[in-house]
Specification:
Layout: H1 44-54, H2 70-79, H3 85-98, H4 102-107, H5 110-117, H6 124-140, H7 148-151, H8 159-170, H9 179-188, H10 199-209, H11 215-228, H12 247-251, E1 269-277, E2 282-287, E3 298-299, E4 328-329, E5 334-337, E6 342-351, E7 362-366, H13 377-396, H14 401-411
Parallel strand pairs: 1-6
Antiparallel strand pairs: 2-3, 2-7, 4-6, 5-6
Helix pairs in contact: 1-11, 2-3, 2-8, 8-11, 9-10, 9-11
């Protein structure tokens, strides 16, 4: 059978059930929610049959008897990390149109990759994507390795992504476990251990279900089941192909799984951002350091983001000291949440002469070309807040010819 074949396997090739590998219901983990000495044994063939009827139509998936394209599988899996499918779809289309192969992506400047990625978030993924493409060219002649262990040696490819590529693109019996799969397994086996401590147990249980036949389709079926049926809120248990085997459904508490430790409270960081506008609608920007948070992205100048930020001293770090008296505090705040901390920014805005030179390491970018920059979402929020404050006269329309001429004469 060809890889990615969506037809149900002949009865003689149906995935074998691994009764000896499945935990008993009486184990201390609370598997299947009862102490009966029976086996919790969901049949992979039932899930594959459900998938053949209800699989999501996604642009990176192989159709019919087509073979999955490893490049498309890899690109989609990187983009889908902590990001919803609907948000990924337009970015995936743009990437694929611009860089249709590993070689094309590897040859692109990192700055261009970051620009196209801007707005999708978690920007380390874009840097790793580019680094991985170059590593594939340098080490593997532009071809993806077939084995999980080799895939994990590449930049940005961890255990989950390696398993997904190995299973979906190359038909290896690998078990990718993402958040959707964790939820399915935790409910199916009623895993009492709390996440993140339960991750190893959930992976072990998931591996017991992975069949030898159609492991790639099975991996995608698990993802689809978690995304469309076994959802975090109001799961559609009556539509689930494993309804009869689900421990959490039998106990009547599927929404209580997976169990999770209470989230650690993260401290708020604060800072100031500076919006500098010239008469020609140029906006002052700079590049962030290549390493670290938002590495290599474009930003408006800011203070350091810290827990002990003092707004009274913010203008001491303004990028144009000579204009310090002309800064206006923009009403409102920019709120943004990063993975490890929430951020609150105040915004100061000023307008400067046309002949104002940018400080070292900075540059002016036309406002109507700002969308071409690798501008992260937090900076888009800063620009939007400042634009509302400065109003239509300054930002919404291009400067008139007379206004531009007057500004040019003043600069001469």
């Amino acid at each position: 059978m060809r890889l990615g074949d969506s037809r149900s396997p002949p009865s003689g090739l149906a995935p074998k059930r691994r009764e000896s590998a499945s935990p008993t219901r009486g184990e201390a983990t609370g598997v299947c929610g009862t102490t009966e000495p029976t086996i919790c044994d969901p049949d992979p063939a039932l899930l594959l049959a459900w998938y053949d009827r209800h699989r999501r139509k996604l642009p990176w998936r192989a159709r019919g008897s087509e073979r999955a394209d490893p490049y498309r599988v890899w690109l989609s899996e990187i983009m889908l990390q902590q990001t919803r499918v609907n948000a990924v779809l337009p970015y995936y289309a743009k990437f694929l149109a611009r860089w249709p192969s590993v070689g094309a992506l590897a040859a692109a400047p990192l700055e261009e990759v970051l620009k196209v990625w801007a707005g999708l978030g978690y920007y380390a993924r874009a840097r790793n994507l580019h680094a991985c493409a170059r590593a594939l060219i340098e080490r593997h002649g532009g071809e993806f390795p077939h084995e999980e262990s080799e895939l994990q040696t590449l930049p940005g490819i961890g255990a989950y992504t390696a398993a997904a590529i190995a299973a979906i693109a190359f038909g290896r019996r690998a078990t990718p476990v993402d958040g959707n799969v964790e939820r399915v397994i935790a409910r199916l086996f009623r895993v009492e251990t709390r996440l993140p401590a339960a991750k190893d147990e959930i992976r072990r249980l998931a591996r017991t279900l992975t069949p030898d036949i159609r492991p790639g389709d099975f991996a995608q079926a698990m993802m689809d089941l978690g995304a469309t049926i076994c959802t975090p809120v109001s799961p559609g248990c009556a539509l689930c192909p494993w309804m009869a085997d689900c421990g959490a459904r039998a106990a009547g508490d599927p929404q209580d799984f997976p169990r999770r430790e209470a989230k650690r409270v993260t401290k708020l960081r604060r800072g100031a951002a500076f919006f500098v506008l010239r008469p020609d609608r140029g906006i002052l920007v700079r590049a962030r350091p290549a390493r670290g948070l938002l590495g290599g992205m474009t930003e408006l100048p800011t203070t350091e983001w810290s827990e002990d930020f003092e707004e009274s001293r913010a203008l001491l770090e303004a990028p144009l000291s000579s204009s310090r008296k002309c800064w206006r505090r923009v009403p409102g705040l920019v709120m943004h949440v990063f993975t490890h901390f929430p951020l609150e920014l105040v915004v100061y805005a000023t307008q400067v002469r046309l002949d104002t030179p940018p400080p070292p390491g900075m540059r002016f970018v036309p406002l109507d070309r700002l969308h071409e920059e690798a501008l992260p979402n937090v900076m888009r929020k800063v620009v939007a807040l400042a634009a509302r404050e400065l109003g239509n006269a300054a930002l919404s329309a291009s400067p008139s010819r007379r206004a531009a001429l007057r500004a040019r004469r003043r600069s001469e």
